[in-house]
Amino acid sequence: MYLFFEEDGTFKVGTVLSQTGSAYQVELVTGRRTKVKGGHVFFEFESPAASEVMAKAEQTAAEMDPQFLWEVAPDGEFRFESLAGDYFGEEAGVIERIATLLTLHGHPVYFHRKGRGNYRKAPEEILKAALAAVEKKRLAEEQKKAWVRQMVDEKTVPKEIASQAITLLVSPDKNSNIWKALSDAASESRMTPLRLLLSLGAIGSAYRWHVDSFYAQYFPKGKGFSADLSLPSENGWEDLPIANVKAFSIDDSSTTEIDDATSVEHVSDKLLRIGIHIAAPGLGIERDSDIDRVARSRLSTVYAPGIKTTMLPESWIKEFSLDEGRAVPCLSLYALVDKDTLEVSATETHLERIRVASNIRYDQIEDEFSEEKLLAGTVNHPFAEEITWLWKFAKKCLADREAVRGKPEILGRVEWSFDLEGEDENAIIHLKSRRRGSPLDLAVGELMIFANTVWGGWLEEMNVAGIYRSQSMGRVKMSTTPGPHDGMGVAQYAWSTSPLRRYVDLVNQRQLISAALDRTPSYRPSDTDLFTIVSNFTLTYGAYSEFQRKMERYWSLRWIEQEGLKTIEAVVVKGELIRIEGLPFMQRMPGLPELPRGQKILLDILGVDYVDVLLEARLKEVLDETDEEALEDEDAVEEVSAESEAAQGTEKDEIS
């Protein structure tokens, strides 16, 4: 005796070994034995043999027309046996009954199951819609296969995929037919989707991928600004007093957003008055205004070699930039400094206008302001005396910070950047070096650190909310709560000196302005917007910094190729992490033997990978040299460098 039954949603045939009540002990054709409840049994039969039934039934079912079966099926609920009789007539034996059940079950578009062995045919309108959907799916599958063959066999990219190549990779809809085709073709070609699209020319180059994918993700509406972000017809700063100071700025020649300047006044034989003057867009950009929403969406100016996308429109930058000869509103911090000890006895904050006497470009005068000339008093420059005092004050600020840190900062570190001659990846690359801790670099950086420290403390003292950076146990974070920054050696720290290029600085400036004018602050300490800004800024600013680092790595590889180098020196930073000498490039080198931090090594260059921005190299020689700079406190260096870069308009900020 044989049994036809259902087990775990599958139709099966087996030989009955025993029966207890309605339950059966059955041996399947595979030899496995199983217990079958009576409710799962369709019928018993004696022939044909169990081993033949399912194969013959499946063959018969394959020949049955579900459309015709639907047409002859009754309108109400029916059993599969009765429909088998209608379809096959008196010939409806075991094979035909099972074949009918397999057909009913295998075509849910035509027949809806209503219980074990019971079905109802789909209503005509529902069937038409379902068949249309099935046909649509079939055509989509054929189209997908055609796209795959075009990419794999013909080595060309379908226009439907080429037109959205970047979007497909940045924000893929993995349920879409286009993505499935790309994924299947990449898998068949044993490539990633990115490398497949690059090989097919859908993405022009690795450079275009890095740049276009970044902007597609973070500037989906484009890099430009809306035309309606015009300046207000009236402003409230024309009546601000003009400070009687001889102010000057120190920036890179390429800087267009000049948001800080300085001044030095001799109050008496014993006292100096050092002024730090910061552009004040916070006066004109009100919270939740149209221009504020744009700045808040961007959160920072984007910097990378040959690339700059500003946080604010050019007209707004021009309105507040501290360009020489113009009376421009600013927030000024004045420090009363003893000429002998360089100790600060008092600080004041004023909202005013200044007329900048000169926009000095540090890269044009840096050689003149050497430490030797400053000590000898032989600097030949109109602002030689003022800058000399600023340098002395900066050295005092640095010494104070080092005393808190418990260790000195290593000065003289050389940083490398690129001047690009030409556009895109075809540019000719010129390396440019800059020595950290040079007198001009130190003066600018320390003044900004001083201002951010003092203003951070003032916000806390006035009980005005602000956004702070702190560091504890090596971890740098941003929050609305002031705390010490151990790496820099300051009690509190609030970015406030780059409001034209960083949104956090703009927010803090609004708060400082309200404190200076004794007005209700724009943000309360419990304002949820502040927490949202901190969270979004941290993520976005980190992504911008990562993009900058990626592009520096890209141009480092391009320079290596441009120069035709076969070997290159590197320094062990830690473990397998190395830094290439003379380039802004770090990467891990798996398999590198354990070497001390700072150890110099020589590498054989095997190749470059512009997609993953990796240098393919192997260790050639361990040199008998050590780089002391690799032993320094990287977190503190990054923070100090950030201030100097921001102040001089060549940002290279990093979220530590």
Primary descriptors:
656 residues; alpha+beta; five-stranded mixed β-sheet; 19 helices; 39% helix; 25% strand; disordered C terminus
Question: What is the number of strand segments?
Answer: 24
The neighbouring-strand order within the major sheet is 4-3-2-1-5
**What sort of overall outline do the alpha carbons produce when their principal axes are compared?**
elongated
| Residue fraction in strands | 25-35%
Helix content: 25-40%
Can you tell me the residue ranges where pLDDT is under 50 for at least 5 consecutive residues? 633-648, 651-656
Q: What's the SSE blueprint?
A:
Layout: E1 2-7, E2 10-20, E3 23-28, E4 33-36, E5 41-45, H1 50-63, H2 66-72, E6 78-79, H3 80-88, H4 94-106, E7 111-115, E8 118-121, H5 124-152, H6 159-162, H7 165-170, H8 177-189, H9 193-200, H10 206-218, E9 247-251, E10 260-266, E11 271-279, H11 290-298, E12 302-304, E13 307-309, H12 314-320, E14 327-338, E15 344-361, H13 362-365, H14 371-376, H15 384-405, E16 414-421, E17 428-435, H16 439-461, E18 468-472, E19 475-479, H17 503-517, H18 528-563, E20 567-574, E21 577-580, E22 586-588, E23 599-609, E24 614-626, H19 634-648
Helix pairs in contact: 1-4, 3-4, 5-8, 10-18, 15-16, 16-19
Could you please describe the fold and organization of this structure?
This protein has 656 residues and is an alpha+beta fold. The protein contains 19 helices and 24 strands. It has a five-stranded antiparallel beta sheet with strand order 4-3-2-1-5, with helices on one face. Strands 9-15-14-11-10 form a five-stranded mixed beta sheet, sandwiched between helices. Strand 1 (2-7) and strand 2 (10-20) form a beta hairpin. Helix 10 runs antiparallel to helix 18 (528-563) and helix 15 crosses helix 16 (439-461). The N and C termini lie far apart (77 Å). Mean pLDDT is 91; it is low at 633-648 and 651-656.
